[in-house]
Amino acid sequence: MATAFKTVEPLEYYRRFLKENCRPDGRELGEFRATTVNIGSITTADGSALVKLGNTTVICGVKAELAAPTVDSADKGYIVPNVELPSLCSTRFRSGPPGEEAQAASQFIADVIENSQIIAKEDLCIANGKLAWVLYCDIICLDYDGNILDASAFALLAALKNVQLPSVTINEETGLSEVDFKQKNPLIIRKHPVATSFAIFDDTLLIVDPTAEEEDLATGTVTIVTDDDGRLCSVHKPGGSPLTGAKLQDCITRAITRHKEVKKLIDKVIKSINPK
């Protein structure tokens, strides 16, 4: 009977749970799904991480290449993110060129990198005007069940913390680059941006970490990105219901708490890999 009611009136079905301050999956309104991270999953990448947020699974691989910096940014390298939502992760996505949601997610990740200063691009420069690192960050969704932005930002951060770049010098006589794969150094991670997403129900009620079903029924979504100092890096709100200043402040406060949880989880996993 409940299944039939959910099929015919999904929104009303959800409302009955929300009135009791819980959700159909048993979570409270402000409760995140179980979150796990596995670092170094792809041996052929320079850095990688796999993140599970409930049933949403995302993997990020970072590939580093050498290139000449641009004329107007002679002392900077590049970070090129790309989010893929292939048809294998959900029936809502089609094969072929990236859809609107994948493009929006890629732009969101690019904005997070730029606004948070997760890496100083000057740190990627090897020789001013001559040589710099380019980091290609490919984020692929393997299983989609909502909240792709939180999972993607988390996977990117964990993968970048796993990157080891070989030492590169330029031979003054030949002008060619020489790469020493025996001597590798980790990236300098300046900030740790963490995304926290909320779905807005009936224009007033906020629920954290929405599933795909909850996103479809919501009247709007908002994603807050904060860094280590509790500083606001980004607010991503693609239309939908407006938010009052008080509600937005509630979101920011919850996002700061979530940041501490995620940072603690990453540190724990990295410590287990490098116990020194």
Write the layout of secondary structure elements.
Layout: H1 2-8, H2 10-18, E1 35-39, E2 47-53, E3 56-67, E4 78-84, H3 100-116, E5 125-127, E6 131-143, H4 148-162, E7 164-170, E8 177-186, E9 194-201, E10 205-208, H5 212-217, E11 220-226, E12 232-236, H6 245-273
Parallel strand pairs: 4-6
Antiparallel strand pairs: 1-2, 2-3, 3-6, 5-6, 7-8, 9-10, 9-11, 11-12
Distance between the termini: 56 Å
Give average pLDDT, whole number: 90
Q: What is the helix tally?
A: 6
What is the gyration radius calculated from CA atoms?
21 Å
| Strand residues, percent | 25-35%
Count the beta strands: 12
Low-confidence spans: pLDDT under 50, at least 5 residues?
Answer: none
**Secondary structure: helix percent:** 25-40%
Oligomer type: single chain
**Helix-strand string:** HHEEEEHEEHEEEEHEEH
| Major β-sheet annotation | 6 strands, mixed
Find the structural class using helix and strand composition.
alpha+beta
- Shape designation: elongated
Summarize the structure.
With 276 residues, this protein is an alpha+beta fold. The protein contains 6 helices and 12 strands.
Protein architecture, described:
It is a single chain. The protein has 276 residues and is an alpha+beta fold. It has helices at 2-8, 10-18, 100-116, 148-162, 212-217, 245-273, and strands spanning 35-39, 47-53, 56-67, 78-84, 125-127, 131-143, 164-170, 177-186, 194-201, 205-208, 220-226, 232-236. Strand 7 and strand 8 form a beta hairpin. Helix 1 (2-8) crosses helix 2. The protein is elongated.
